[in-house]
Amino acid sequence: PQGAEEARAFVSAFLKRSMPKKGEEAIQDVLTRKAVVLEHYPEKKAKPQRRKAKGFTAKQRRELRLFEIEPEQQRYAIFLPLHELWKQYIRDLCHGLRPDTQPHMVQSKLLKADLHGAIVTVVKSKCPSYVGITGIILQEFKHVFKIITKEDKLKVVPKLNNVFSLEMDGFVSYIYGSKFQLRASERSAKKFKLKGTIDL
């Protein structure tokens, strides 16, 4: 049988291992009160770092031609249903384009609206060859619109130095491209300021 001294030594050594943060005096104090609560310090596991899903780089997108429209798809008739969807989207956005609708309210909505599917016309330009181009906007980038015309020609029209007109249920709005050089996603959060005169 184990003696009292050996038992005390074993308990003391056991408590030192079990409670490494407590000193000798604290352990003895615990023993005198006859109540021992063993502490458990689990090993901290390193959290696995989440890998962010990487998208394609701009170079990879160009190589894969993700945003290019195939020549056989460049037909005006194909995108007329897209225009009809866009018209319904604008009507819902503006709560119906009634005759008594305030023009500035419609204008403010259109400034932040998605223009893919809208029919636009270049009415003013510093480059005369752009004036008169009319078609459906297929793609909007920061600096250009890609427009498909009724002649089934895909035109890349820069926003800079061009003024576009947009007609919707008798309401005509003008887009000054020089002040519109934003991505569609950025426009939805931007606050546009009213200006008296705007030059090309």
UniProtKB/TrEMBL annotation:
A single GO BP: rRNA processing
GO molecular function: ribonuclease P RNA binding
Subcellular location: Nucleus, Nucleolus
Claim: S-adenosyl-L-methionine is one of the keywords in the record: no
Record keywords, A-Z: Nucleus, Phosphoprotein, tRNA processing
Gene Ontology CC terms: nucleolus; ribonuclease MRP complex; ribonuclease P complex
Domain of life where this protein originates: Eukaryota
Family: Belongs to the eukaryotic/archaeal RNase P protein component 1 family.
Function: Component of ribonuclease P, a ribonucleoprotein complex that generates mature tRNA molecules by cleaving their 5'-ends.
Protein name as annotated: Ribonuclease P protein subunit p29
